[in-house]
Structure formats: C-alpha cells, structure tokens
Amino acid sequence: MNQSSDWNPPVRRTGAAREPARRGAEPSSLADILERVLDKGIVIAGDIQINLLDIELLTIKIRLLVASVDRAKEMGIDWWEHDPSLSSGARDVLEENERLRRRVGELEDGRGAHREDDHETHGAEREDER
Amino acid sequence: MNGSLATWLYAVTAAPEDGTPPRGLTGVADEPVRLVESAGLAAVVGSVPLEDFGEDALRDHLEDLEWLERTARAHHRVINGATGHGQVIPLRFATLYHDDDRVRAMLQERRDDFTATLRRVAGRTEWGVKAYVDPRSFLPDPDEPTGGEESPGTAYLLRRRAQRQDQETAHLRATEQAEAIHASLAALAVATAAHPPQDTALAAYEGWMVLNNSYLVPDALDEEFTALVTDLGERYPAITLEVSGPWPPYSFTAPPKRAEEAQQEETPS
To answer: Which residues, if any, are the signal sequence (chain B) (predicted)?
Structure first.
C-alpha cells in the first residue's frame, strides 16, 4: 500500500543489549520484559510492603506514557486526544481522569442541589411569612 | 549481619529431586541464586542487601529507569534460567521477605495454589505476538478533496474533521485485521492474554501497535505457532508481526484480578 519509506519498521531499531531467550532465537526487548516482570507474574504480599511499590510503578508508567504522548505531539499525531477507541495505556489514565471528574461533578452537583433546595425552602418560608 | 539482608523471590517451582539450585545464576544484586524448599515446592531466591532493596531504597530506585532496566533484566534472567530446571511460576518483581523461614511458611500456606498453577502451565509455553502498522497504510483513499468554495476557516475545520475521521477509519481497519490475526493464533493456544500497546519511546517503534498479546501454547505446537505467525505476516502485508518467546508463563500464572475466587474453582484438580 502507500507505506512510505521513512516509516521506521517498528522494532529492532535500537541497539540495546537484549537477553537471549530460553530456547535461543528471539532476544527480549526491555519493553517486553518490563511489561511482564512489573505487571505479570504472581503477586504475593511479601514482608516489604508492595503497595507502595505499586504506586511507584504507576508513576513510572505514567511518566513513560507522558513521554510517548509528547513524542506523538512532536510528530503531529494528536488523534489520541479525540479517538474514543484509543487502545493504549492512555485510555486507563483518561478513563480514570474522566471518572474522577464525573465524581467531583456529582459531588458538586449534590451540594449545589442541596443549596438550591435550601433556597427554595427559605423562599417558601419567606413567602409564608408575608 | 543477617539483619541487613532480605530474601528476594524470583520464582516458585516444584522442588527438584536432587535439590540443587540452578547453577551459575546470579540475581538482582549479583547474589548467587539458591533454593528455599518446603511443601514439595522450591522458591528460587537470592539474599539482597536491604540498603538497596528495602522499602525506601526500592522506591527511590524505581524512579531510575537505568536501575529498573538492569534489575528487571536480572529478575527475568533468573526466572528464565530456572525454566531450564522445570516448570516455573514467575513472581512479580520486588517480592521480598525478611528471611527464608517466612518464605517457607508462605510456600506451605499457598501450596495448593502453586501446585495447581504448576499443573496448569506444565508442557505449555508463553509466546508474545505484537502487530505494528503504519497508520498511513490504512487511511482511506483521498479521492475527494472536499470543497473549495468554503471560507479558509471553514475549509480548515472541515479538513481537520476529515483528518480525524480518517484516523479513526484507519484505526478501525487496522484493528479489524489485528483481530483476525489474533483469532487465528488463539486457535492454537490454550489461553491468551492481552497487554496494552507498549510505550513508543520505550519500545522504539513508530506507528500503532494494534496487537500485543500473549499466547499459552502447548509445547508440541510451538513450531506450528511460530510458522503461523510468519504465514499471517505474509497474508497481511500492511501489518508487521513480531513474535517473542519462548517466555516463562508470566501472563498465565496470576489469577485474574477480579475473579480470583472463580479462577481457583475452575483450576483443574
């Protein structure tokens, strides 16, 4: 198709050292290893608290994510800002943001509604008084 | 001096008959790797200094991508090395105990889970398959350059909207092909796991990663599976496929987060 020659075939672009895999052929990229050792494997609550680590790992992920978003912007790709079917880790963060925003909205609405109720009640009382 | 060390866990395996640890393996702190046995199981462990692997130190280190890379690779290297000695259950990075007795107690306590999991992954191997596309290969043909009569501002907005729609179309088309590829691969696997697309900077690629899955494949089908990846790459020329593995079963040993109970029930007995 119209694949132009300046598209970098996605992988094996870096010269980073790679681990040989068990039965030889394919070396493992850092991204492959990180997604497995940080996100997969059995989780056991050891003695040294892992909950804190989870939070830290999350910040690393977000930082990496931000780096990639900046890079996408540099390349003039901003579809992720609009694409609802965005299928990356970004979606989790965006969804989380959205959820939080909705929650804050609900809380504010709730408070606002109470206030309006109060106003109405007061208003009615005042009318009664007259 | 013992107080300054903690026990870092790499993997759980069936206790080896000869009781010897994987030879020549060193771990995250360059420490020799050894086995802690209990309940017919063996934890593959190493003693690491708390000053580097205690809670605070770890938290600081994890902010350092170079440290993380070195240590994550070491963790993986040990797990990978241990697979040469039998089926392993990889443990999440940074699983630490104060001492070996605590590890033995944990093995004892979770023996049934571990044995069931070891049975589930026995004779099976994890393979990773990623699919990349150049979005431009999936853009609609620019057959109708819209308008000419609109004001420059309107034309700009229309163009922007069209671009956005084109991107969505391209993404949809690429995803459809990726799903077809996944369906073919899944037919050879006993289980599949989806990972989010990798970070473009970290994984050094351009374009979109439209598939990043793991497949748990019976060992007898390994060759068939990798050959299928090659075939599919030819059948879908606009998609670049990459296979990685064989991996220790990282993606298939943890019970699903929200269905822990259900998973344990369905585990073959």
So the answer is: none
**Residue A90 burial by CB count (10 A; 0-12/13-18/19+): exposed, middle or buried?**
buried
Task: Give the global pTM.
Answer: 0.71
For A64-91, write each residue's pLDDT tens digit: 655 555 554 554 444 344 444 444 444 5
> Cβ of B168 and A13 within 8 Å?
no
Distance from CA of A97 to the nearest CA of B (A): 18
Taking CB atoms and an 8 Å cutoff, what residues of chain B touch A9? 132, 240
Strands (E), chain B: 5-14, 34-38, 41-49, 88-97, 124-133, 191-194, 208-218, 239-247
Q: Give the C-alpha separation, B25 to B74, whole Å.
A: 10
A32 at B interface, C-beta within 8 A: yes
Nearest to A31 among B79, B172, B202 (CB): B202
Please write the tens of the pLDDT for every residue from A8-62: 645 443 333 333 333 333 457 888 888 888 878 777 777 776 554 555 565 566 5
